[in-house]
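#struct-pred

JT: dropping the chains for the assembly here, can someone run the whole complex?
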Amino acid sequence: MNNYPSILLGKAVDQFASLPGIGRKTALRLVLHLLRQSEKDVEVFTSALTSLKQDVHYCRICHTVSDQEVCPICLSNKRDKHTICVVENVQDVMSIENTGQYNGLYHVLGGIISPMDGVGPSDLEIDSLVARIEPEDIREVILALPTTMEGDTTNFYIYRRLQNAYSQLPIANNQELKISQIARGVAIGNELEYTDEITLGRSIVNRIDFKV
Amino acid sequence: MNNYPSILLGKAVDQFASLPGIGRKTALRLVLHLLRQSEKDVEVFTSALTSLKQDVHYCRICHTVSDQEVCPICLSNKRDKHTICVVENVQDVMSIENTGQYNGLYHVLGGIISPMDGVGPSDLEIDSLVARIEPEDIREVILALPTTMEGDTTNFYIYRRLQNAYSQLPIANNQELKISQIARGVAIGNELEYTDEITLGRSIVNRIDFKV
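RK: done, full complex below.
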């Protein structure tokens, strides 16, 4: 009889607990919440997930989510086709889109290089990034990866791969490929005294000209 | 184009975000995780939820979850039929079962009295608790509600209701109804200096005889 309800609810709890960041206690709470909903509400829930899997795919070019083979950002005529912003995942595309400060294309790696987690370059969409450079006439690649050790490693790896690939391009393509990374420093609105030392140190070393 | 993926994933994100304790960012993370799973995995997920709603019901007597009209705890011959432990929700039944220290019956209120949240006595399974006392020959009711203001209020309300109901029982039922509550005090393994003042104060006032 011990733990009887958890056996009864087991399958559903297992499924919720398989989601990232959801432990068994939270999973149980979610299942008991759904149990209190009407049968119709649960059906709305499950059908939303089913249609998700059927209707949503990944863009063949930039690997963000899309309802077609190529996403609206890649298809749009209003975007700057010479710039690619490299991000870790789909959420980052949304975060950058929300800023309204970027009008180029994206490339979603699907992760970053992390030997600890067994993620190497071949697990990521790096080959497909390199393959985009020439045919699409890309002039700038912006590296917008996490500002962590893994992010830095991935940045460096991509930088080397792009340098190599670009040096082998025919000279007709007469321009340099610019490779940039997002600015790191004290977050807007933060007090210096509460900023960590590494960030503050970097923000002094990498200071920029004051503009009015 | 702004926030385009979130519109595309919107329905599924909305559904996850409707669950307790899940915000929109977490919901999006869960949806993107499911999107990476195979179609079959998602089907396993949704069918677990669908069958949950079809197979699991609430016990007619104690209101815990059950696959039949009456739960195995209420049906069992091995449980002490003279004691009811009153708890807030199904999780609490599981927590107490896991201790292995209780062998009586349960009564799940489905919440506690909380005027701030608009939950009054009539929203809870209190009438059905009072109705169980006479026919089931209950000798003790253990109040195992949260040790909060709302829990205390609910304890007091139930105490008064039970007192009233018991005083009107025919005298044939010659015993007193014992109403107890779970012990409150310093948690096992805790240092006194890290225990909050209210708990420590209560644990001194409500001290019990030392037993070897």
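JT: nice. The mean pLDDT of chain B is 86. The first helix of chain B runs from residue 4 to 8.
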